[in-house]
Amino acid sequence: MFDPIVAFFQRVFTAIGRGIGLVVAWLLWPFVAAGNWYRQRSWLLKGPIGLILIGLVLFYGYFIWQTQAWTNFNEDYIDQYKLAERKVPAGSPMSGPGATSTGQSTTGGTANNLAGVATQPMESTPEALAAVQLPAGTVCQTSAIVDVTADLIDFNVNENAWISSMLLYKVGLFGLDWDDTPWLDNKASFQRGVNQAIRRTSVELVDSLGRMRGTSGINNALQSARGNMQFDEETWYFGINPFGPKTPTPSFYRAAMKDLRSFNTSLSKCEAIFDGRSDNLVEFLDRVANDLGNTSAILRERSENHNGGWFDTRADDRFWFAYGQLYGYYGILSAAGADFDNVVAQRGLLPIWTETIKQLRAALRIQPWIISNGEEAGWIMPTHLATMGFYTLRVRSNIVEMRDILAR
Questions:
Q1: pLDDT at 105
Q2: From CA 55, how far away is CA 16, in angstroms rounded?
Q3: pLDDT the model gives residue 112
């Protein structure tokens, strides 16, 4: 009775197996043909070809390893800076004749309450403070923002290979951009997200944080760092447009890292300025909020218009870029809380600032193996982009609220 039904399903599965076999044979045919050709050649030809093939295997093996090994990735990397132990804001005297007992400053700049420096009352405007010469031997607090930013560059291009400018990443998969495939592009997107936070911060350091507004010139080290960080992310040692050898991207970023460390060295000697006024913090938070708002819009557009679930090959790029950006801002905003400690305390921002840092850390817990861009109302495939967009908007909303409080 059931024999015809059983025979039918046997024929179906046999046909499916035959079809799969044909597909596999078609895919393997070039390699089988190449192997047969190779076996028929003499060793004069086999030797060089074999060496080339071994070289390609090692080359691709190194590339694949670099894309999968995330060296020193640590969601709690900010703990190493011990920011809670900092007693004075960035640029304020810590020790020596110019140090103060509280580390508080009317401006948060390099020249705080310099007891014993002037015998007459001193006007506490940036112009007046910038003109004060600190006594020899005074040591000033370095900027945590600069420390974290420099270390993020170090993490991106020294502790890890910079994927976006590697030759095999530029070549792609048989000419197809790796970003258009589901493979080997997550780390590159993550690094570019971290780099976006670094670039934004380097601009703000030059324009406002590293100078007394209207009274001092742009710091040369910060200016150099900003210029180096604006270099494109994909340059290898050789290029076509223009044709010829080039300096690769990581070299420019390493130079920016050295410039940032040089600035902090000068700041520790009280030879540079960190202007930690509340209006500078307002401007900095505004730029960060705009940056996150742009990323949120990108996530929303992809989530709404391309929700192909696990089959959306660009969803992982968007997700890991946003993740990297939040990873970078987690450290930078934590550092900003230390650099602007007096402003945060005086304006009552500590509760919302702490909550913002907690939300950034919570976003870093989302690390799915496969990124899915499913429908928000779907029940089979998750929607990781919408989840990341939610965390991004939460952080941005808090930053906007802090900016508004400071602007009152």
A1: 44
A2: 38
A3: 39
Structure tokens at 398: 């808090």
Residue 55 falls inside a structural domain: no
Q: Is residue 380 assigned to a domain?
A: yes
> For residue 290, how many C-alpha atoms fall within 13 Å in the half-sphere facing its CB?
8
Gyration radius of the chain's alpha carbons = 28
Measured between alpha carbons, how far is residue 394 from residues 199, 282, 332, 391, 404 in Å?
A: 22, 18, 17, 5, 16
3-state secondary structure of 37: helix
Domain count, the chain: 1
Would residue 233 count as lying in a domain? yes
pLDDT for the residue numbered 216: 64
Decide if 120 is inside a domain: yes
Tokens linked to 391: 């965390």
Q: What is the pLDDT of residue 39?
A: 77
The secondary structure of 298-328 as a DSSP string is HHHHHHHH---BTT-TTHHHHHHHHHHHHHH
Whole-number pLDDT of residue 372:
86
Q: What is the pLDDT of residue 72?
A: 97
C-alpha torsion 82→83→87→91, nearest 10: 120
**Token duo for residue 217:** 């010139």
Amino acid identity for residue 369 in this structure: W
Taking 50 as the pLDDT cut, the residues of the chain under it are 101-131
Q: What pLDDT does residue 103 have?
A: 44
From the list 109, 104, 159, 152, the residue with the least C-alpha distance to 129 is 109
pLDDT (0 to 100) of residue 133: 59
Q: Which domain holds residue 152?
A: 71-407
**Strands 93-95 and 238-239, how do they pair?**
unpaired
Q: What does the pLDDT read at residue 226?
A: 97
Q: Which amino acid is at 69?
A: A
pLDDT reported for residue 123: 36
Cα distance between the two ends of the chain: 85
Residue 302: CB partners within 8 Å, gap ≥ 6? 312, 314, 315, 318, 373, 385
Phi and psi torsions of 136, nearest 5°: -60, 140
